[in-house]
Amino acid sequence: MSAWPSSTLLQRLFMVAGAALALSVFGVSSAASPSDEPVFFGVSGPLTGPNAQYGAQWKAGFDLALEQINSQGGINGHPLQYVFEDSQSDPRQAVAIAQKFVDDKRILIELGDFSSPASMAASPIYQRAGLVQLGFTNSHPDFTKGGDFIWSPSVSQADAQPLLADLAVKQGFKHLAVLFQNTDWGRASKDVFVKAAAARGAQVVAAEGYQPTDKDFRATLLRVRDAKPDALVLISYYSDGAQIVRQARTGGITLPIVAASSVYSPKFMELGGDAVNGVTTNTSFFPGDPNPEVQRFVRAFEAKYHHQPDAFNAFAYDATIIAAYALRTGGLDRRGVRDALPKLHDVPSVVFDKATFDPNTRRVIGVKSVNLVVENGQWALLGSKPALAAK
């Protein structure tokens, strides 16, 4: 067990401080004076290119977490900082960044990359060098199989896609057409979804892959329409997902649309406009979730940024909290950080409520799923309560 304050004490600290999760991280006096020499983690992710919005969302989550951590003494008296290298979520650039990070002895843990293909291309470099890669948005089922330095607080698609199948089937859809990114992540997700849908009595009547750079989906949409599905399922990111929905609606395709959680972003509505109203998805974080841990984070985020957080803000925030626990426990040593991760139990988390790693899979135990729908250009709860599933 980790030597951290009890959950009861943490709750009292939250109430006293008003910035709840800040005090939960270390339980040290705010009068502590960090030394001048910072502790660094590295970030590989998109700051430019088609996925740049995700990088911007990450930075907001990182910065809030660091503000709270450093106000409470940092890491054993050292301020925590990060070096963010722009990969554009391109596997080739992610590999080059990985080499840069492993050569920089200041970097004690790495967070990222955004997409599983980019992260998995870089994983062998981190594994050989003995630097933990914490792929906090890497849901490919094989990601953590890259070695004992490859960890993820992201829900695996092996768990996420059955929840997406549940969402589709519970809405009464039995004949489904799937449009998926033709990448390792997209293909693996599609395969899991097809099996999960069949296990729930639904049939995938068409499955069409597309390249992430594709812009014209009209021919693909006509092919899946001709298979006579009663709903479309998108395994997409927010940018391509929004384009698919717009082109479906302008092409007269009015089928209900169920989308993977990777579309959950304000950009989905910005790019999709009125066309995306009615699209349903699920996510492991939603600011309208009444869970007290979530609401404390939402209040702190709104106070800093003057708008509500989304899932990718929360994922980055959570990953920073987890990294900070591992750094403090691991003794500011790369191997020590790796050794600390399986020892951490019930780390305060806005995504999982409490995060504990399975040392065998190197993923956080348990899955939380909140079902959402776009209503009048905003995300809203589809159901009254989050659905919980344990591994």
TrEMBL record:
Transmembrane domains' residue ranges: none
Segments forming domain Leucine-binding protein: 38-364
Similarity comment text for this entry: Belongs to the leucine-binding protein family.
Signal peptide residue numbers: 1-31
Gene3D superfamilies: 3.40.50.2300
Lineage per the UniProt record: Bacteria, Pseudomonadati, Pseudomonadota, Betaproteobacteria, Burkholderiales
Species of origin: Paraburkholderia translucens
UniProt keyword terms in alphabetical order: Amino-acid transport, Signal, Transport
Protein name: ABC transporter substrate-binding protein
CDD domains found in the cross-reference section: PBP1_ABC_HAAT-like
